[in-house]
User: Fold this.
Amino acid sequence: MCLQLNKRWSVCGEAGNGLSAIDMVRRLKPDVVLLDYAMPEMNGVEAAREIATIAPECAVLLFTMYASEQLAELAYSVGVRAVVSKDVGGMRALIDAIEKIGRNAA
Assistant:
């Protein structure tokens, strides 16, 4: 909901699990995908790996309660552009990461 409040962005979909996220990327072709690490059916890193093969131009961010150096290394190795913790200040960090990716893509 917080992301929808930003007038410069358009939220085109929301998936309940990793497999649905991949299907939505195929259909909607978004510029940015936000994944959680802990998702049903397929975790965020596995979904990011698949998204990188079907939509390499799509920027994937991982927003997770489980942020660690090990998870970040794994996520970056499959094409994730940013790993953001859901800790205090996490939403601001997420917005900053999305804006940074948008500037780098322009």
